[in-house]
Write a structure and sequence with these properties.
It is a single chain. This protein has 296 residues and is an alpha/beta fold. The protein folds into two domains: 250 residues, Spore Coat Polysaccharide Biosynthesis Protein SpsA, Chain A (Alpha-Beta Complex), CATH 3.90.550; 36 residues. Helix content is 36%, strand content 24%. The chain is built from eleven helices and 13 strands. Strands 5-4-1-6-11-8-12-10-9 form a nine-stranded mixed β-sheet, sandwiched between helices. Strands 2-3 form a two-stranded antiparallel ribbon. Strand 2 and strand 3 form a beta hairpin. Helix 3 packs antiparallel against helix 4, helix 5 crosses helix 9 and helix 8 crosses helix 9. 39% of the residues are buried. It binds 1-O-phosphono-alpha-D-glucopyranose (G1P). The site of 1-O-phosphono-alpha-D-glucopyranose (G1P) has 13 residues, from strand 11 and helix 9. 1-O-phosphono-alpha-D-glucopyranose binds next to strand 11 and helix 9.
């Protein structure tokens, strides 16, 4: 069955970024001039996934506004003759036909995915986390869909992480099948470094058969008292194979202050109009002028 839908869980509190996330979703934080969530929507679109289902929460309305038509703004830009901006704004509003569904309680990532079941129905679907931006030569969702089309089973994107970072991720234990493809034997959510079965970490891009919903319904709370998607995948393994595809991409976790700062820096360094001035500034900082910690 063709993969047509993507679920983007964006309901989380963004506690690592409070108080900035009290009223503003972390998914709307800008990477220069484009909000994080737009990168993920564009990733879906370039893999031909047009049905984007956002699992949102109480304070996530700005995401809805972003993908909606803003006629006043369009009129204003037209009147000012700002045609480039107008084109850009119009494109964003017409990128997708979004569906918004509320996760009433924040019971964990697994629960957020389960909330989307009535909209997904009984078909394979993608889950793309709303704060992870992935940069690769080839669209990773497209590659995952290829693997799904071959095996007809769920596929999870993984990447190699430093051992010091293992406890931040879901980690798989997989058997190598062929270039970049593994069959998963087991997986564990945020293990201690010494207990991790490998250094292959779940990126935040998943392609599931609809059977995952059955498993999510019986997944007990796990790490942090939350219903973990990783635990549901473990249960899925009892019934059917799950594949992993190892990607060699740059993975940006914009959901933490340091991850966000690195992302913005990296993207800014790739922008012609910002690059030179930024490099000069960084050089200056490093050579003689790193500001002291302000104690006032
Ligand atoms: C989630 C998943 C984890 C995955 C990670 C990727 O964790 O539970 O398995 O490795 O995303 O970013 P979170 O970072 O949302 O706590």
């Amino acid at each position: 069955m063709q993969v047509r839908k993507a679920v983007l869980p964006v309901a989380g509190w963004g506690t690592r970024f409070l108080p900035a996330t009290k009223a503003m979703p972390k998914e709307m934080f800008p990477i220069i001039d484009k909000p994080v969530i737009q990168f993920i929507v564009e990733e879906c679109l370039s893999a031909n996934i047009e049905n984007v289902i956002f699992v949102t929460g109480r304070h996530k309305r700005p995401i809805e506004h972003h993908f909606d038509i803003n006629t006043d703004l369009e009129k204003h830009l037209e009147q000012c003759g700002k045609t480039d901006l107008l084109k850009n704004i119009m494109e964003i509003s017409r990128l997708i036909n979004p569906i918004y569904i509320r996760q009433k309680e924040q019971l964990g990532l697994g629960h957020a995915v389960l909330v989307a079941e009535p909209v997904v129905g009984y078909e394979p679907f993608i889950v793309a986390l709303g704060d992870i931006v992935v940069k690769d030569e080839r669209n990773i969702l497209e590659r995952m869909i290829e693997v799904y089309n071959r095996f007809g089973k769920s596929v999870i994107a993984v990447f190699e992480v430093d051992t010091k970072d293992i406890s931040k991720y879901g980690i798989i234990n997989g058997r190598y099948i062929e270039k970049d493809i593994y069959i998963i034997d087991d997986l564990v959510e945020k293990p201690k470094q010494q207990e991790a079965p490998s250094n292959l970490a779940i990126v935040g891009r998943y392609l599931f058969t609809p059977r995952i919903f059955e498993k999510l319904k019986i997944t007990p709370p796990g790490k942090g008292g939350e219903i973990q998607l990783t635990d549901a995948i473990r249960l899925l393994l009892e019934d059917e194979a799950v594949y992993a595809i190892k990607i060699d991409a740059r993975v940006y976790d914009t959901g933490t202050p340091i991850g966000y700062i690195k992302t913005v820096l990296d993207f800014a360094l790739q922008k012609e109009d910002l690059r030179d001035e930024l490099i000069a500034y960084l050089r200056q900082l490093i050579s003689n002028n790193i500001p002291q910690i302000d104690t006032v």
